[in-house]
Automatic annotation (TrEMBL):
The keyword 4Fe-4S does not apply. Belongs to the peptidase S9C family. Residues 1-22 form the signal peptide. Keywords: Hydrolase, Protease, Serine protease, Signal. This is S9 family peptidase. GO terms for molecular function: serine-type endopeptidase activity. Residues 489-702 form the Peptidase S9 prolyl oligopeptidase catalytic domain. GO terms for biological process: proteolysis.
Amino acid sequence: MKNKHLLLGLALIAGISSCQDAATADKQSEADKESYRTPDTKLASDIMTPEVLWSFGRLGGVTISPDETSVLYGVSYFHKAENRSYRDLYTLSVDGGTPVRLTNTNKNEYGETWRPDGKKIAYMTAASGSMQMWEMNPDGSNPTQVSDVEGGIGSFQYAPDMSKIYYMKEVRLEKSVEDLYSDLPKANARVINDMNYRHWDNWVDTYTHIFLADYKEGVMITEGEDIMPGERWSAPVKPFGGNEQVVWTPDSKTLAYVSRKKSGVEYAKSTNSDIYFYDIAKKTTTNMTQGMMGYDMNPVFSPDGSKMAWESMERDGYEADKNRLFVMDIATGEKKYYTEDFDQNVGHLAWAKDGASLFFISDWHATDEIYNINLTDGKIAKLTEGVHNYQSVFVVGNELLATRVSMSKPAEIYKVNPKDGNATEISFENKKILDQLKMGKVEKRWVKTTDNKQMLVWMIYPPNFDANKKYPTLLYCQGGPQGTVSQFWSYRWNFQMMAANDYIIVAPNRRGLPGFGQEWLEQISGDYGGQNMKDYLSAIDDAKKESFVDETRLGCVGASYGGFSTFWLAGHHNKRFKAFIAHDGMFNLEAQYLETEEMWFVNWDLGGAFWEKNNKIAQRSYANSPHKFVQNWDTPILVIHGGKDFRIVESQGMQAFNAARLRGIPAQLLHLPEENHWVLGVQNGILWQRTYFNWLDKWLKDEKK
């Protein structure tokens, strides 16, 4: 399962895991800290290991200085012994060169941004005991606390004229058991009256509200005014919304924010978020996307403030609907849909300097590239091409600045020429490690499906691949279900990590994935056990024709919908596979319908409730629930599940493991009590990799098996 708007957030969240107090680190010498915070890593070999994978610096939070000469960003490094990350801030010339390190503390710095006049850099840190806003000079000197808000803040941003800031803060509006029954102070319970009582990996005890406060250099901010008083919903939209959903207009008179203003069952069943304008002077709120029923997200204003562009989905309850580009004339309220004839998604919008065009990123045929749309004639131009994914784009003078990844390289910063698409790397955070590693070949193939379509399949080979040998081979099943098998870099499902262990990986862009048009994407909804499963088998059956693929040693792995796929294929694979691994997968769809927190997802993708006996789509979905085919299971399976995964709860994995063992099938359960739908802790992440490969090696490499 996925959220359509989390792709950029994935990299950031993965880099912010901080599992314990920094007291241990305080005792370390500066020399010891430097050894892993700016590592000069000497690898024992040129083959990646889990420890090497977790030693990469994770770069994110890129912002450009007001004078467009400098890039501000953060980098996280993980320390295995302390089971935590350290995140520091850097600046770098937009022309490249040596980065300047601005911070070096044990508390970590987040939410970095430039003050509009460029004279200060602001950020958040818990150095004072709670997360607050701080400022420092652009060279990192004179760090000064700016806010002292009770309970801390979640994020902030300056008004363009620097007269105010907004900040986010958690607000409790519901009474706790202790509030209701003061004579029971030790009672540990919740009284729940409606849905949306937990989400993603947290119980919903508070709501994120936006506060406004006056800003003046040297004056401490201690409290602001809640612009959403008494409202029982959050802005930005949880769990992944950030500052991209709360934006000042260029004249500083209005704050635009995104919220899904629903509650209870209605909230759980809907994706209908809207963009609201809060008038600072009048203290009034206006819904600017009233009547637009799907996600409306991520507003960006033209340089002169006359227009607002945003990402919009048409249908309520459908997170994988086409992500469309809309532009509004602020004065008239007129909205124009610009990508009606463009059968692709748009994201990460950035206005050109003259306000006449927009840059954006879109996935097509399994890579994410930069595009430009001319607002006068509506013409769209693809600017870049390659085996990579662009993750963000910024306009800097007559050029672009962007972050980019691939299956063989984590995020770095590039300067891009918009005229020819040529890109030049300017940050080299991970060069020292990458220069010591040998990566496997990444190959793009087109495979014919059972219904005579062409499907793009990625093949990733071991670093020292020998075509005269036979290799165990893994079918990778993607999550989402409408996730992307593009050129992503992952710290869990890392294809180069798998290849380094002498496996060939087959990663198909089966039905239900973006980048191949909306018809290809939408086919999967209501057809979980159908064509996309045939696509998986087409991909692996095509691969095993190769002389170097050992068809007697095939494995099948995946998470989320990929975990569902693994469970389903375990009952339908006709002896193809010798080992399965399912992480956070749906096993019992009837239970899943009532266990998950985002009802809009199961209503759309499964077609409705299992008790709707006359609903043919729903009944087909539940008839294909993996738990109904356990009698066919005959292959060893590893099940992994997080205890804080409220999207697909841990009982799904436990049911699958128990079913396998009751049937006498070799099985193992890796339960991670503190992890959610991902694995964010460094030691848990390394444990995940070791368990994963121990299982595969046992069943696909041990000659006795």
